[in-house]
Specification:
Layout: H1 2-21, E1 30-44, E2 47-61, E3 66-70, E4 73-74, H2 77-93, E5 100-108, E6 112-113, H3 119-131, E7 139-141, E8 144-145, E9 151-152, H4 157-166, E10 171-174, E11 180-191, E12 194-205, H5 206-214, E13 217-220, H6 224-231, E14 241-242, H7 248-277, H8 283-305, H9 314-334, H10 340-358, H11 365-391, H12 396-416, H13 429-453, H14 458-475, H15 479-505, H16 509-522, H17 529-540, H18 544-567, E15 580-581, H19 601-633
Helix pairs in contact: 2-3, 2-13, 3-6, 7-8, 7-9, 8-9, 8-19, 9-12, 10-11, 10-12, 11-12, 11-15, 11-18, 13-14, 13-15, 14-15, 15-18, 16-17, 16-18, 17-18
Length: about 625
């Protein structure tokens, strides 16, 4: 009772402070409250034991703040978990997060409470507080909440299940793949007159063990919607979605860009091969560069040709162009040619295009999609250019590669907005502010969780880079570009979390859930090309890590495009009436990829050896030139 009273006093104090600052007559209305028992793990002298944590939440009208008060110490990720839980539930209910404040109170016998494992439980409490629906007290849950609403892996599942069974819980929800757990039993053996204690790992099927020994059902859940269905007695069914609808106008644009880039890719490849053969490089280096062109530039081109007119194949053509240009730059660099003119040209083109894009406006929803795709490409080009400058002294070859990709991305971006009217701009200030706010909480939360596990992610590093870019763009008044950079940051942070969860839990459910969510978004409107652009790229991805990134980009940038249309009063045509489906892949502008999409270990070894071969050839060539110069000076 004292705990509940203290929580009420905390809320009343906050309400009083708000009212003291507000204008006369303003009131902060309490929307609802709820509490839930969440399992925790404590370390004792004899090992880990499960315990119960009481989590209470009060919701009031407000401005999107999340407060956490606790009797126990909490790890730094607890605040992030609370924020993620509230945003996820608001998305599920379709309410505006920024119109509420959330006040959490945490009480536990555990000395230190980690945030991630209580994420789903906090989301359940928030759902109850917002809706007034009573929580089923015979159900408990453990699991990390991801910003996209998926349930992630946690530790101590066996101990938590045991504690919940002792508390009278009949159903325990766990993350995917964690119904099979490893426990440790103490083994005693004698060494002379001494007793020596050691532990042995034991694999336990918790679903069978818990039911037999504790009368506790253990069920795996992969999304917050699944967890909600158990706590609030409703049948969970994945959302159905319509097949994406693409008009003939959109198809014509896609085909035009595909044909233009295909022509450029072939031309650049031919020029690069000739450039290599006519260079003064050693035969060994020429052979290495030619092989690289065949392995990558030619391969990308041929794969794209097997999928003519497919929007997802367009980036393959852009990559082919980039590789061919990079090889030419490598030749110039190896022959000590001045690259300043090429560098300046790319820099000026990026700067000029960003100005053009800021002054371009859409006449309809389809053209808005063109602008968002072009904006994303331009932001990526800018990042690559900046990176090439920062790494030049240590790694000039990779710097040149980034420069070549930046120029190719910019060429594709120009094609998307070709013919669009100038003299106006997309009104994106509100969307930029909203997405920047989400990115501000998403990246730190994911980082705090993954940093504790030792998991390293280049995708998460990119998320931080795009968040920083978003802040800079917003401050410079580039609101559209800021919103795109923020959406990309959110997507990559979420993809990093899911990639970790998949590797830690050993379940492919996160790819399946991400694919389903992406398809739900891209089927919401006719000609939502932004979502289809990235979804189709996921079909060409060579790994689940890349596939997750593309699927999250399809979801976040697709959602942003819909929000921009709403904010700009741009008519969006629903994709209904085309037949619904709940499992098949969306219809694409052309065929699905005809080539294998998942690389095996030998494919990766071959790529690694190819890169080593190229670098070795360039090193040998530079050594040969150096020795030749030394001999010449003698």
């Amino acid at each position: 009772m004292r705990k509940i009273i203290s929580v009420c006093l905390l809320v009343l104090l906050l309400v009083f402070q708000y009212n003291a600052l507000a204008a006369p007559g303003d009131q902060l209305r309490v929307v609802g409250s709820a509490w839930i028992m969440a399992p925790a793990v404590s370390q004792t002298e004899t090992g880990y034991v499960g315990s119960a944590t009481n989590i209470s939440v009060f919701v009031t009208e407000g401005w999107g703040d999340v407060y956490v008060s606790t009797y126990s110490l909490t790890q730094e990720d607890f605040q992030g978990a609370a924020t993620a839980a509230t945003r996820v539930v608001c998305n599920v209910l379709g309410v505006d997060f920024n119109k509420y404040n959330f006040y959490f109170k945490v009480s536990s016998d555990a000395v230190i409470i980690g945030g991630p494992s209580a994420g789903v439980a906090m989301a359940i409490a928030v759902y109850s507080a917002l809706t007034g629906a009573p929580i089923n007290r015979s159900v408990a849950v453990t699991g990390m909440i991801s910003p996209d609403g998926t349930v992630g892996p946690v530790g101590g599942v066996y101990e938590k299940a045991q504690a919940m069974a002792s508390s009278g819980v009949k159903l325990f929800l766990v993350p995917p793949g964690q119904s099979i757990v490893t426990s440790y039993k103490v083994v005693v053996h004698r060494v002379g007159p001494f007793q020596v204690y050691s532990t042995q790992p034991v694999t336990i099927n918790l679903t069978e063990y818990a039911l037999k020994n504790w009368n506790l059902r253990v069920v795996e859940v992969s999304t917050i919607e699944e967890a909600l269905s158990y706590f609030f007695h409703y049948e969970y069914k994945p959302k159905s979605y319509t097949r994406p609808v693409i008009t003939s106008t959109a198809r014509a644009k896609i085909s035009s860009i595909w044909q233009s880039l295909e022509k450029t890719a072939l031309s650049e490849l031919t020029i690069a091969k000739t450039y290599v053969n006519e260079s003064s490089l050693t035969s060994f280096t020429k052979n290495a560069l030619s092989n690289y062109l065949n392995s990558y530039a030619s391969s990308y081109l041929e794969t794209a040709r097997k999928n003519p007119g497919d929007i997802g194949a367009i980036p393959l053509l852009t990559s082919s162009i980039a590789v061919s240009r990079w090889i030419r730059m490598i030749v110039d660099y190896s022959q000590n040619k001045n690259l300043e003119a090429q560098v300046n040209a790319v820099r000026d083109n990026i700067s000029n295009f960003l100005q053009v894009l800021q002054n371009t406006y859409p006449r309809d929803f389809l053209e808005l999609n063109y602008i968002v795709i072009a904006g994303d490409l331009a932001i990526r080009a800018s990042r690559l250019f900046n990176t090439s400058a920062s790494i030049w002294n240590n790694d000039p070859q990779t710097a040149l590669q980034n420069l070549a990709y930046a120029s190719a991305l910019l060429d594709e971006a120009k094609l998307w907005v070709e013919g669009l009217p100038r003299g106006g701009a997309v009104n994106a200030q509100q969307q930029a502010s909203t997405y920047l706010s989400i990115a501000r909480s998403t990246w730190p939360y994911v980082y705090s969780v993954l940093s504790q596990t030792g998991y390293s992610s280049s995708t998460l590093d990119l998320s931080n880079t795009y968040y920083t870019a978003s802040v800079s763009l917003y401050g410079s008044g580039y609101h559209l570009l800021a919103s795109i950079a923020a959406a990309r940051s959110i997507a990559l942070a979420e993809a990093s979390m899911l990639d970790f969860q998949e590797k830690a839990g050993g379940s492919i459910v996160y790819v399946e859930v991400s694919s389903r969510r992406a398809q739900e978004i891209i089927s919401k409107a006719t000609d939502l090309l932004v979502g289809i652009y990235f979804y189709n790229q996921s079909l060409f991805a060579g790994s689940d890590t890349d596939r997750l990134a593309y699927l999250k980009l399809a979801t976040e940038l697709g959602s942003l495009t819909l929000d921009l249309a709403k904010g700009g009063n741009i008519t969006v045509v629903s994709a209904t009436g085309q037949g619904t489906t709940s499992g098949s892949a969306p219809q694409t502008p052309a065929t699905n990829p005809q080539t294998p999409t998942t690389k095996n270990i030998w494919d990766r070894v071959r790529e690694w050896l190819q890169d080593i071969y190229l670098k070795l050839a360039l090193l040998i060539d530079s050594i040969a030139k150096f020795l030749s110069g030394v001999i010449g000076r003698k």
